[in-house]
Amino acid sequence: MTYCVGMMFDRGLVLMSDTRTNSGVDNISTFRKMFHWSVPGERIIAIMTAGNLATTQSVVSQLEERTKAPSERHNSLLEAATMFQIATLVGDLLRETIQSRDSDAGQEGAGKFTASILVAGQINGMEPRLFLVYPEGNFIEASVDTPFFQIGETKYGRPIILRAYDRTMTFEDAVKLLMVSFDSTLKANLSVGLPLDMLVVERDQFEPLHSRRITEADAYFRAISSGWGNALKAAFHSLPDYSFEV
User: Fold this and answer.
1) 3-class secondary-structure state, position 241
2) Which helix (H) or strand (E) holds 33?
3) Which of 56, 136, 153, 242 is most buried, by CB atoms within 10 Å?
């Protein structure tokens, strides 16, 4: 399992993912799930992946190859005219990869190679955009009503974001919010784990404003984890006591 979040703000985009993959409790590994490509002054594209590792690595490898392909092929992430076209390209690759692997595995393997992907970024002259791509290759786009997407183990960190998200918040507060969301998920589910990858993309800049890997030794994340736990205990004890008196 994994946990990835992409959030849209007035100032741009903030993305975060964990790096844990597991196949049973005794086979836990670390693999990057966030990738980005940029052309300074022209575009920045980022994806985050969740699901079957072989499937997602195959999709990422094909995307990497397309960024290095000769220009006459006209199929690179760096040549698509819009973010919608990029989301379509990623969706087609994901669907084809899943169908190919399910076909190779036969009837018994059907459904084992599923995955989902978040696609985010901006192309010069257009708005920043965020998409959630489903295993079938279709996708939906973030909006004012739905300004963030999660994939993977979403249920533990979602209530935190729902209560505190504000489209006008600063990048610093957005990072803090995501760290609290991830800390809550880490505490509740062993299939999500450190290190975390973070990417901050400012509107109209077309290269990362901030990129960071957060490890167990990260002083800020440890302070957030400890402070959030203490704040929850304090909030709990400040609530009115229940009474058994009628």
Assistant:
1) coil
2) none
3) 56
Secondary structure, 3-state, 187-199: HHCCCCCCCEEEE
Distance CA 129, CA 122 (A): 6
Q: CATH code for 3-154+190-216?
A: 3.60.20.10
What DSSP designation does 203 have? T
> What CA–CA distances, in Å, run from 110 to 24, 57, 231?
20, 19, 46
Domain boundaries of the chain, sorted by first residue? 3-154+190-216
DSSP 8-state secondary structure symbol assigned to residue 242? P
Burial of 217 (0-12, 13-18, 19+ CB in 10 A): exposed
How many H helices and E strands in the chain? Answer: 5, 12
Residues 46/209, Cβ–Cβ less than 8 Å: no
3-state secondary structure 136-165: CCCEEECCCCCCEEEEECCCCCHHHHHHHC
Tell me, yes or no, if the pTM score tops 0.90: yes
